[in-house]
Amino acid sequence: RKLEVGTERKLELEVGMERKLELELEASGTSSFSPGPKLALRYHCAVCGKGFSAPSRLEIHRRTHTGEKPFECGECDKRFNTADQLRVHQRNHSGQKPFECALCKKRFNKTGHLAEHQRTHTGERPFQCHVCQRRFNASGTLAVHHRTHTGERPFHCTVCNKLFNRSSDLTTHSRIHTGEKPFQCSVCNKRFSHSATLRKHYIVHSWDDAFRETA
């Protein structure tokens, strides 16, 4: 069943209002409060039995079982299971970056990316490895680090089946098979498959410039 974006937004707003009420009740400190029928988990998933306080929450959860993604990007045909996910994705095409760092004015297209960036100013590292106690400023960085302890390599090449612990390493490796060279020298237009190789290549031009100056 496909929901219209307007209908989805209406349901998501309903969730937001209920959550706001829940937070206000928690802040009131009234521990003896008994939720009324509006906050009761009246809507239950037919697959796993999990309960929800609003039909919109149940609808979004249901898609985790069905794999349904009713919201399609008009630019790249990528699909999403909520309207908000689609709106965030569309900023990749529009270049919109509505979230600005108050310290350096750098802009981001997601609040999560802004939060991670702000920790470069504060030095905060709230995510700690439970094995070696090392700390990180982003949960994703911690997840990658944790694989150095477990040996997990969840990303595999579909051509040669080589395994990697980071998706970026798989992307770089895949260029061996595709021949893709996305990094181009601005001086001689030579192309490279790795950004590090391009940086090393620029040294050649700096040597050429130095030689011409001394000649």
From TrEMBL:
<dbReference type="InterPro" id="IPR013087">
    <property type="entry name" value="Znf_C2H2_type"/>
</dbReference>
<comment type="similarity">
    <text>Belongs to the krueppel C2H2-type zinc-finger protein family.</text>
</comment>
<feature type="domain" description="C2H2-type">
    <location>
        <begin position="155"/>
        <end position="182"/>
    </location>
</feature>
<keyword id="KW-0804">Transcription</keyword>
<feature type="domain" description="C2H2-type">
    <location>
        <begin position="127"/>
        <end position="154"/>
    </location>
</feature>
<feature type="domain" description="C2H2-type">
    <location>
        <begin position="183"/>
        <end position="210"/>
    </location>
</feature>
<feature type="domain" description="C2H2-type">
    <location>
        <begin position="99"/>
        <end position="126"/>
    </location>
</feature>
<keyword id="KW-0805">Transcription regulation</keyword>
<dbReference type="GO" id="GO:0008270">
    <property type="term" value="F:zinc ion binding"/>
</dbReference>
<dbReference type="GO" id="GO:0005634">
    <property type="term" value="C:nucleus"/>
</dbReference>
<dbReference type="GO" id="GO:0000978">
    <property type="term" value="F:RNA polymerase II cis-regulatory region sequence-specific DNA binding"/>
</dbReference>
<keyword id="KW-0863">Zinc-finger</keyword>
<feature type="domain" description="C2H2-type">
    <location>
        <begin position="43"/>
        <end position="70"/>
    </location>
</feature>
<dbReference type="Pfam" id="PF00096">
    <property type="entry name" value="zf-C2H2"/>
</dbReference>
<protein>
    <submittedName>
        <fullName>Zinc finger protein 850-like protein</fullName>
    </submittedName>
</protein>
<dbReference type="GO" id="GO:0000981">
    <property type="term" value="F:DNA-binding transcription factor activity, RNA polymerase II-specific"/>
</dbReference>
<keyword id="KW-0862">Zinc</keyword>
<keyword id="KW-0479">Metal-binding</keyword>
<keyword id="KW-0677">Repeat</keyword>
<keyword id="KW-0539">Nucleus</keyword>
<feature type="domain" description="C2H2-type">
    <location>
        <begin position="71"/>
        <end position="98"/>
    </location>
</feature>
<dbReference type="InterPro" id="IPR036236">
    <property type="entry name" value="Znf_C2H2_sf"/>
</dbReference>
